[in-house]
């Protein structure tokens, strides 16, 4: 009882966006909790994140674009066009021995560390996706 009251106090604020879920949880209304969860999922996940159906969830051919900010630097520089573009836009970027450590990082993570590089990564991703569409 004491724990239940403590949890009710945590979530008693009427102005929080998750209050509908909390009310359903406290009532034990699984259907309403699922409805709320589905609304959040639909607003959060994009087609690119989850694919078009359960059977093609991991099928890269169904993705609208092969490269995104979720691609790793290593995946990106495996493409000759990307290497050429990086060398033109940021000469020497791929030459240092420490760059190997960044190959496992996503472009989004790299942008988090160096926001000024975002236009360069976007240009490379766009060019790679355009090249993929041409070569299909």
Overview of the molecule:
By secondary structure, the chain is mainly alpha-helical. The chain is 59% helix and 0% strand. It has helices spanning 2-10, 19-27, 30-44, 47-50, 73-77, 80-89, 99-102, 107-113, 118-134. Helix 2 runs antiparallel to helix 3 (30-44) and helix 6 (80-89) packs antiparallel against helix 9. The longest helix has 17 residues, at 118-134. The chain is elongated, with a radius of gyration of 22 Å. The N and C termini lie far apart (63 Å).
- What is the terminal separation in angstroms? 63 Å
* Average of pLDDT: 79
According to DSSP, the number of beta strands is: 0
- Percentage of residues in DSSP E strands: under 5%
Low-confidence stretches: 54-61
Derived structural class:
mainly alpha
Helix content: 55-70%
Describe this structure in a few short sentences.
The protein has 136 residues and is an all-alpha fold. Helices cover 59% and strands 0% of the residues. The termini are far apart.
List the helices and strands and how they pair.
Elements: H1 2-10, H2 19-27, H3 30-44, H4 47-50, H5 73-77, H6 80-89, H7 99-102, H8 107-113, H9 118-134
Keywords:
136 residues, mainly alpha, 9 helices, elongated
